[in-house]
Amino acid sequence: MLSEQDLIAYLENTLSPAVRQRIESELERDPQQRRQLVHQIQLDTALRALLGESTSNERVKQSVLAIVRGESEEAIKRQVLADTTSTARSSRREEAHTTHPSSILHRLSSIFRRPAWTFTLAAACVAIFLGVWFATCPAPLALAIETPTEVALASGVGTPKPGDTIRADVSISTTVKFADGTVLHLEPGTEISLQPVGNPPRAGGKQFKLVRGSLAADVAKQPEGLPLLIETPHALVTVVGTEFDLTVDTNQTELEVAHGLVKMSGVNDAQPVSVAAGEFAVASPRTTTRYGRLARNPYLWPFSSASIWNRPLGSSAKFSPVPGKSFFADGPLADVLRSRRPFLGSPTDPLRRIWVNGEIRADLCLAVANLPDANISDSWVLLQRGRRHALELHGVSVRADGDLDAQSLARTDLAGPGVDESASDAKPFGLSNLGGLLRTGELENGIRHALASRVNRQRLGGRNDFQTPSTTWPATGGDASSGDFLNVGTLLAIPSDVDIAAKFGTNGPAYELARAMQDYGVYVTGVAPAPFVLLTDDARWAEADELLTRLVPLLQIVTNNSPATPAGGGTPRRETAPALTGESK
């Protein structure tokens, strides 16, 4: 989109041949910009006719143009003061050689080299012209800002105009793309307005208002002097090129930066704060902006600090032996690791829409080559870099056009509890498929969350139809809990009186896994065709079968894990997980 400065330079023939050719090509393609050029020619011609071509008059013309462009009153005052001071000096030099009395009109007539009545008439004409201009012409600033080239909505793909508002449906995310590769992901219910921002408002470049909701952005490097500007009710955000998340709540604006550097200026800040990769900032109308390092990466360590997945066992936890058939009734454990690797997409990957029962329910950028074979019945977890939500899908297939079909879809807030109040096909027992995953590197660096396991159907109570096993809190959606069997939702743990250091040493994978099972425990999250498996993000190690064969017999049921006494209650064995910015309990 061409700015007023581009068109003025084009009319005044101050551009290089290459730039002129580019502008002419854009004018040829875009009728809206041709109309803007006509308006600019009309204004320029009128001003030249009224004020003439002298250098002094050119300053007046530029001041009028500054008003039309929307520059601040303060900025125009400063320029006018500078021009007036310069003119006054010239006038005093002229008065030194004449005895002619100096009225205001005579001074002005000497400045513009016209009779006084000519200046009066010109001023009246300019006032009339500007009144008509403002009444009939679209706001030049709205035309000057750069707008997206593509917006993926449930109704289809559109191209917005300056001044438009883009609203994501309350249940569907929306992806916004610009010509330079900049991508915005608007979470459901988010609203942005494509209009100039800042004080004074800036002409040109990418800029918009985030009215409500959350967005994640992958911003290409912006032209020098034209950073991306985002205005929220509480702050102004300036971006040259980076990845970040931005959320507007009722009383504050939250920023998290994944890569690069972002500047945020709150309403109470004397200077903007610089927020680098791995840092956050929170602006509110009551205080200056606070900022610092992010406590943890929600992609690698998700969910709120109060989540069942991040809650350590307490000193009041009570234990009882696992009922029923032994885990080793059919021999030693084998193939004890089951991969549940989340699929991570980049904002620069092709945009895919996700269809459920013939309706578009979400979108994300994803390379299909990263996905497993189509038509798998198991659940998928799709992550988008720069997004604070995961998409959990069941019964997925890849369409001929590259979009995805799913039988069921659920959205999971990475700063939320990791448990839904009701079950769905995507989360059969309400438990997120991200919960409890053993992550690559944790066996060396320590595990600071509960783990997730699955057991064979014969170990679970409930109706034996493979669809309705017994469940207990925090799981839901199954049959009534059973005391004679395990249940989906059962928390298993190594009792506190077991000396794991004596059995497994004080470091290494065996110790770290045993310590996690004693300090956080292992939730039973579903059914597997094996006596016992641990869920991982694709982590592998050679001694897994042997190690789990030694660990599993030590596990017992935490009998008082409940909403009133989560993880057994009492003093936590470990420090709770640090809070995520904006986490929901």
Layout: helices, strands, pairs:
Elements: H1 4-11, H2 17-29, H3 31-51, H4 55-69, H5 73-95, H6 104-112, H7 116-136, H8 140-144, E1 150-153, E2 156-158, E3 165-167, E4 174-177, E5 183-186, E6 191-193, E7 207-218, E8 228-231, E9 235-239, E10 243-248, E11 253-259, E12 261-266, E13 273-276, E14 279-283, E15 290-293, E16 319-320, E17 337-339, E18 343-345, E19 351-356, E20 359-365, E21 376-384, E22 389-398, E23 404-413, H9 442-445, E24 451-455, E25 491-493, H10 500-504, H11 509-519, E26 522-527, E27 533-536, H12 544-551, E28 556-558
Parallel strand pairs: 7-8, 17-27, 18-21, 19-23, 24-26
Antiparallel strand pairs: 1-2, 1-4, 3-6, 4-5, 5-7, 6-7, 7-10, 8-9, 9-12, 10-11, 11-14, 12-13, 14-15, 16-28, 19-20, 21-22, 22-23, 24-27, 25-26, 25-28
Helix pairs in contact: 1-3, 2-3, 3-4, 3-7, 4-5, 6-7
